[in-house]
Every structure is written in structure tokens, then in C-alpha cells.
Specification:
23 helices; 49% helix; 5-stranded mixed beta sheet; 533 residues
Amino acid sequence: MASKPGILTDWPWKPLGKFKYLIVAPWAISSTYMYLTKDDPMERDFSTFTIFPILLSRYVHNQIWISLSRYRSAKGNNRIVDKSLDFDQVDRERNWDDQILFTAILSYLGTRIIPNGRNVAIWKTDGIIITILLHVFVVEFLYYWLHRALHHHYLYSRYHSHHHSSIVTEPITSVAHPFAEHMAYFLLFAIPLLITAFTETVSVALLIGYITYIDFMNNLGHCNFEFIPKWFFSLFPLLKYLMYTPSFHSLHHTQFRTNYCLFMPMYDYIYGTVDESSENLYEMSLKRKEELPNVVYLTHMTTPESIYHMEIGFPALASRPHSSSKWYLWLMWPLTALSTLMAGLYARPFLVESHRFHKLTLQTWAIPKYKIQYFLQWQKSSVNNLIEKAILDAEEKGVKVLSLGLLNQKEDLNAYGEIYVKRYPELKVKVVDGSSLAVGVILNSIPKGTTQVLLTGNLTKVAYAVALALSHKGIQVASSKEEEYKKLKKSSINMSNNSTTNECLVFSQKLVAKKSDECMAYSGNSTWVRRLE
């Protein structure tokens, strides 16, 4: 939101929420029906029929850029601005698809209002040439001065400051503007389309190509990583003036008063608004190496649809629990099946996300295995090999701690990671499973003055560690099940030779805990009961 929101800030269909696409539904259904059922060429309009497929393709195009950008930003190589996205920015840019809907609505209206707007040709070379010339010498020129005007304090505070709230840009930042600002941009981009329509040189190829070009360059310029190689500009020197780079536009978001161009820096060079550090930042970004993590959390996928809930997936789903899967994911089963196939073929851990906590770099890696595969006997060897590879990769990168998450720490799979430590005794990376943190939380929650503790339920590594820690303190730890008591005793002998510790472990049927997931303290006898499962 701008610092002082002006009129027409919100999109008209904001109250509709997720139902906003119903606006184009009548046009999409009508144009599809007419094209598939009518024989009359005047009624069977291919150009109108393509509007809805273009809408869908633009959504896919932008989503590819989102996923690519977030993955590359997490890796850190060629990163431009060394900061992380904040939650406010993610929420602010969540309506990035509104501009796609806006374009579709105006396109449907244009086919009915503009002369020669229907039944346009598939290809017309003269129209494409006219569009290129108009874009370079009219659209780019007008945009440059419009952009400078938007940086005047009056317009900036009411409109353009919304866009500049994002210092660390990502592809969808390119379309994070108030509605009024989008109207101005659409009028600019419509100039070549309207002129070619009135001169009868417009074509379907021109419409698709020009819209795709705008989307592509918008996304490219707002990536937070540099990937245009130096040899590209060495081979074609003039491209320096006809094509910006992510680092070039990034300076506009950090310096504000430089690099105003739309896609072509030529007008910045003409009017002297090129940032002096543009070349230096470009070269530094290209040289930047992959960021090495200090801590890695190794997890795995749960279901085939869980890929969409990751940070590199759909932003709208990544912010919600996996249990909130939407109905439309069923329509995406071909893509889901493809991702499942790719996960099987990739066969190596992959980076999910990266975060910075003070001076620590924390990353989440994932094993390309699903939850069900951890319960299949014939998959255990494959899963263990992937976990082992992740540990060795972490060792090579100098990771200090690698935490096994979810089912990667199953006892019957790898004994909580113990097999890797024994297999590679010289490992410098500490392989942990998070149990020490759980033990610490439980010990801290036991009331002071407790003299007896009863452990019930299925005893795990956490329970054994809790029992050992309590017995070290002289607190009596009891088990009401003889079989569990024997396991505790055996574990205590293996982990400690302290006789006091062993004496504090007792078998008692007198203390019986109620079936409850909650802890309860018995007043008067200083006995604390916790159900551990």
C-alpha cells in the first residue's frame, strides 16, 4: 500500500476475492463455444478464442519465473541484494494476477468495440515491424517520462511508493502497482496494438508476442539474481542500450532516482540518469558465488501435491498448511505426475529455502521421497543413500549442523542417524535429530521439587534421554510396564555406568497414569506424570 493511497488504488473486483475470475467466465465460455460450434467465419473468431488460453499461459509463465527466482535467490549465487523477503512484501504482492485478469477483460471488450478487432490474421509482418518501432521510440520514451513523473512526491506518495516498498525484488514485484497506475501502463502498451488494429496490420502472433515480451522483460528485470552473461553484451554491444539487466533495475529500487527505463536503458543514457554503479554491480553480481549454509534442516516431501506448498511453489499455498489443499490441485494432476517422475529421476537432495538469522545462514533441504516411501521396506536403502548423500554434501560445504527432520530420523531407518556417524567417524558436521531440544523442553516443564516421575506410552529416544537426565539429578523415574522398564534399564547401562543413575530407575505398578495426552501433577506426593508417545 502506498504511504498516502490515492483514488483508484484498489482493484475494482477486490471484494470478490477468489471469485474474481468469474468476471471473464461468460466471455471465455461464449468465445470457446462459438469457435467450436459455429461454421460462419464471422462468428467463429479465433483471435477472441485465444484470449483465455493466453490468460492461462501468462499465469504459467509468471509462476515459472517465481519458482526459478526463489530457488536461485535461496542458493545465493549471483544474488544482487543480500536481503531476504519479508512477510509484508509477500502479502502485498499476492494479487499479482490481477493485471492478467485486467488485460483479459480489456481484450474481450476490445474485440467488440475496436474496428477490425475480430477475426484478425494469424501473422502480419508489417504489423510486427510497426509494433517494434512504436515500442522503441514511443512506448519506451513515454514510459521513461511517466516513470519520472511518478517519482514526484505527490504521485509517489499516493501510488508509486507501493511498488518501491519492495527493496528486494522478485518477478511479481514488477506488477505490484495500484490499479490507477496499471491503467496508465496499459494505455502506453496499448498504443502499438491500437495503431496496428486501426491500420489493419494487427495479428494473433503480434498480440501473443508483444504480451509475452512485456511479461518476460518485466519478470527478468525484477529477479534478485544476475544471469545475463558478459559475453552476450560483448557479442552484441548495442544491446546495452536496448535491454536492461536485473542488476540495472535493482539499482532503481535501492537508489530510487536512477535507472528509470522500462526495458531499454537508452533513454537513461540520453538523459543522464544511469546509475554510476550499474556496471560495477552487474560484474559483482555475476561473480558472486553460492552461499554456504551454517545449519541445514533435512526434510522430505509428504505427498505429490506438497511440492506446491513449498516456497518455490504457489505463494498462496506456501503460506497455508498442507491440509488446506485446494480443489483446483486435482486439475493439475498432469503437472503433479510430472513432478513425481522428476523427483524419482533427480535422485538427490535439493534446496527448498534459505534464511538468515543474524550471522547464521539456515537452509532447508529436501529428500525427493514421499511419506509413503518411508514405510516401504524396499525403499529404505534408497532413502538412506539420499540422506547419506545430503550429509556428505553438507560436510563438503562446511555445514556446522545438519538436523534430520520428519521421517529422516526414524529409528528403524537409520537409528536416528547413528549409522551415518558410525560409518563416517571423521565427520565434522554434527548430525542431530532434534531430540535434545525436545528433552530440554520436557525437563524444563517439570515442576521444581519433583521427586518421582512416571513415564508411560511408547518410549522413544526422547524418553530414554529424559529418564537418564532425571536419574542423574537423583529423581526417581518409574515405569508401570515391565517390558518398558527393562528397556530403560538396558539403555541406562549402555549410556551411563553411574550406580545412582541406575538405582533411580524403578518398576512400579502403584503409579498409574490416566489415559491423557496432558501432563498432571499429583499434589502431596511430589509425583509428576507425563505421557510420552
